[in-house]
């Protein structure tokens, strides 16, 4: 789709990003059989196979602490390409990036060496666990408790839910309440191996099948060196990671939307109706034009947010929130519009638009709901200056 290529030609990106997009697109095109097979497989088996394929292809190398190429523009490029080719491939890539990012940014040398090289190879799967029944976008409401033990370790009791890759993860980054202070001040991040006694994963079914789980912690004992960052610093870890990742969700949304719009355009130009083509119907042409504009705008917001983050610009959190908000809302509209162009055929199981329709909905919820992101953006808006009162 021209919107993607045109965006890559802008100064937000350089030649290495364009080369990355071309290489990833070619790699995905050669694996159409893999996408079909994993779509038909149980979520856990599909996730394990895709993780291995991504690792073998070198696409997880951003987790390697010695790689040095984990800039967010590259991650956004890869997410858009992966989402365009196969939603499960993007999901697997994204969760591995999400799980490795806090270790890369806050881990000790020993933690980084223990986990990151294996994650980069696809030998070790990760998950990032924040959400609970009563704590989703409101990270400060986390209730899972981690009580300090006499030997300096911790015992975790409580649950996490809606955890992506939770059924296949080998290590989970968990945000728990340790009580150094109230609310956000009393949270700590932990790295918990999945085989730790007292940790149990229960699968959760989704309308778009993939690996999700509820994690139950019952007397789950971890040593002092399981702490990621510092005690009481868990809120900072969580919010920093989410602010970095949100824009990449926008990139995935653009990939799904681009695939939907391509399918709708192809169908509209081939479908004969009223003695002409569906594309010639004025209402259809207007709808497709509007959807293309939404896609272009989404791609621009994502590109700007990633560029700002990579150059260390100010206001990255708001830019990332705006990119995620607009791109995911636009993608929902674009996929819905594509279904409308196809008519009933667009909702038949196995149709590309039917699959995209199920896949796109969750993007407006995870990594910050649209409502919460609007509030985040509003908080950054400039305040008017107080006018001087005249006598």
Primary descriptors:
globular, four-stranded mixed beta sheet, 391 residues, alpha+beta, four-stranded antiparallel beta sheet
Mean pLDDT: 93
Indicate the overall shape.
globular
The chain-level structural class is alpha+beta
The CATH class of the largest domain is identified as Mainly Alpha
Our estimate of the beta-strand percent is 5-15%
Would you spell out the secondary-structure blueprint of this structure?
Blueprint: H1 2-8, H2 15-29, H3 32-40, H4 43-57, H5 72-85, H6 87-106, H7 109-121, E1 126-129, E2 145-148, E3 154-164, E4 171-177, E5 187-193, E6 199-203, E7 212-222, E8 227-228, H8 234-270, E9 272-273, E10 276-277, H9 282-310, H10 316-342, H11 352-360, H12 370-379
Parallel strand pairs: 1-4
Antiparallel strand pairs: 2-3, 3-7, 4-5, 5-8, 6-7, 9-10
Helix pairs in contact: 1-9, 2-5, 3-4, 4-6, 5-6, 5-8, 6-7, 6-8, 8-9, 8-10, 8-11, 9-10, 10-11, 10-12
């Amino acid at each position: 789709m021209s919107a993607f290529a045109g965006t890559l030609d802008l100064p937000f990106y350089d030649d290495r990003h364009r080369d990355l997009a071309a290489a990833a697109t070619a790699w995905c095109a050669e694996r159409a059989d893999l996408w079909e097979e994993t779509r038909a497989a149980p979520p856990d088996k599909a996730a394990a196979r895709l993780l291995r394929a991504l690792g073998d292809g070198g696409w997880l190398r951003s987790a390697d602490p010695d790689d040095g190429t984990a800039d967010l523009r590259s991650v956004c490029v890869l997410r858009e390409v992966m989402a365009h080719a196969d939603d499960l491939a993007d999901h697997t890539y994204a969760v591995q990036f999400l799980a490795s990012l806090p270790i890369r940014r806050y881990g000790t040398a020993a933690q980084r060496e223990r986990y990151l090289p294996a994650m980069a190879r696809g030998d070790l799967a990760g998950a990032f666990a924040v959400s609970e029944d009563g704590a989703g976008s409101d990270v400060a409401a986390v209730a899972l408790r981690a009580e300090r033990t006499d030997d300096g370790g911790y015992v975790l009791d409580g649950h996490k839910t809606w955890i992506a890759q939770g059924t296949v993860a080998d290590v989970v980054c968990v945000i728990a309440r340790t009580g150094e202070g109230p609310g956000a001040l009393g949270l700590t991040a932990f790295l918990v191996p999945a085989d730790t006694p007292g940790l149990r994963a229960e699968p959760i079914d989704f309308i778009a099948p993939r690996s999700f789980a509820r994690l139950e912690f019952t007397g789950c004992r971890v040593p002092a060196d399981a702490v990621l960052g510092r005690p009481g610093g868990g809120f900072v870890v969580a919010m920093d990671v989410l602010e970095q990742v949100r824009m990449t969700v926008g990139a995935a949304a653009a990939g799904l939307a681009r695939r939907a719009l391509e399918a709708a355009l192809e169908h509209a130009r081939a479908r004969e109706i009223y003695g002409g083509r569906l594309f010639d119907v004025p209402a259809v042409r207007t709808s497709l034009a509007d959807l293309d504009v939404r896609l272009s705008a989404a791609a621009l917001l994502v590109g700007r947010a990633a560029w700002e983050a990579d150059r260390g610009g100010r206001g990255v959190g708001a830019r990332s929130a705006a990119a995620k908000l607009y791109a995911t809302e636009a993608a929902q509209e674009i996929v819905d519009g594509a279904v409308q162009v196809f008519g009933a055929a667009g909702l038949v199981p196995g149709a590309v638009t039917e699959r995209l329709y199920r896949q796109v909905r969750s993007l407006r919820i995870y990594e910050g709901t649209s409502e919460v992101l609007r509030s985040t953006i509003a908080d950054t808006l400039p305040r008017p200056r107080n006018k001087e009162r005249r006598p």
